[in-house]
Amino acid sequence: MSETAPRVAVVGLGAMGLPMAMHLATAFEITASDVSESRRMEADAGGICAFAGPAQAAANADVALLAVRDEPQAREALFGPDGVVRSLRAGGIVILTSTIGPAAARSINVELAAHSLHLVDAPISGGPARAGEGDLLIMVGAAPQPFERCRPVLDHLATTLTVVGGRAGDGQAAKAINQLLAGVHIAAAAEAIALARGLGLDTRMLLETLSTGAAGSFMFSDRGPRMLQAYAEGAEVRSRLDIMVKDMGIVTGIGRETHVPLPLAAAAEQLYLLGEAQGLGTQDDSSVVTVLSPTTFRLGPETPGGAKPSNRITPAG
Q1: Which residues are catalytic?
Q2: CA contacts within 13 A on the Cβ side of 289
Q3: What is the dihedral of CA 29, 33, 37, 40, to 10 degrees?
């Protein structure tokens, strides 16, 4: 690695990878790769030289930062016919920002070591907007030496950078706990909005009111407005529901492996699976509220005055 700023290849220019690459380009020499020509064109427009294959992007890099969907994509990007290991020089570092689970990270670490490469397990949390601003939460599991060598890259992306352990997989373990909390909180917010609709309440007013009290949470305040969008123009897609299906599957899998019961996580996972089965996989995860309270539905018992509450959908929810 160079004694000055490391050269970084960003592999994967999706919802998180592209804004991370753009932000990193303000301080580092960046190349990138993605199978999508349109995403490569967006990177090129931002001054980043983008290639179709990871090996081309990593040819002159010191660090390869993976921002892909899951373990199969990570393995293809690293070990496939045009993978990073074909060109990243010995001693190079792979930063794994994807959420793939502890066991997968440990396995990949062993395979990279066989190619004289180091893994820094550094899953991220924060969403695309924060990725583009360098405002991410990053949880690291790595040996001290490779971590320090790529720390300038991670520092540039994060406002909260925490080493949670010294082994590959430790970062993934912390991210799984993060996703457990996020997934359960989104599901709870969806139940609250669904119940409010069933009671005929003004959901927008209720959201604004409860967000300021003890029942409020980041997820209620963040996803709540998008849940209301789901009943109007459709929720803005910031975090796809099928990603939550993947992540909650990792969480419940870890629970089984460690013999730790996770009843709330398991229930939330089933809700996201129901949403995916109803065709919501590519929608924002907040759209799961429509599984509990469909766009059109019949309300329950008559009110004491004899009149049924209105079930007409309004912009307020």
Answers
A1: 175
A2: 33
A3: -20
What CA–CA distance (Å, rounded) separates 304 from 292? 25
pTM, whole model, 2 decimals? Answer: 0.89
Considering the domain 8-168 in this protein, what is its CATH number?
3.40.50.720
Q: Where are the domains of the chain?
A: 8-168, 173-292
Q: What's the first-to-final CA gap in the chain, in angstroms?
A: 54
- Assigned token pair, 300: 């329950």
CA atoms within 13 A on the CB side of 306: 0
The whole-angstrom separation of Cα 77 and Cα 111 is 13
**pLDDT single digits (tens) 84-129:** 999 999 999 999 999 999 999 999 999 999 999 999 999 999 999 9
For residue 287, which of 247, 253, 246, 237 has the smallest C-alpha distance?
A: 237
Cα(256)–Cα(258) distance, integer angstroms: 6
Query: Is the four-CA dihedral 175, 11, 145, 155 of positive or negative sign?
Result: negative
The CATH architecture to which 173-292 belongs is: Orthogonal Bundle (1.10)
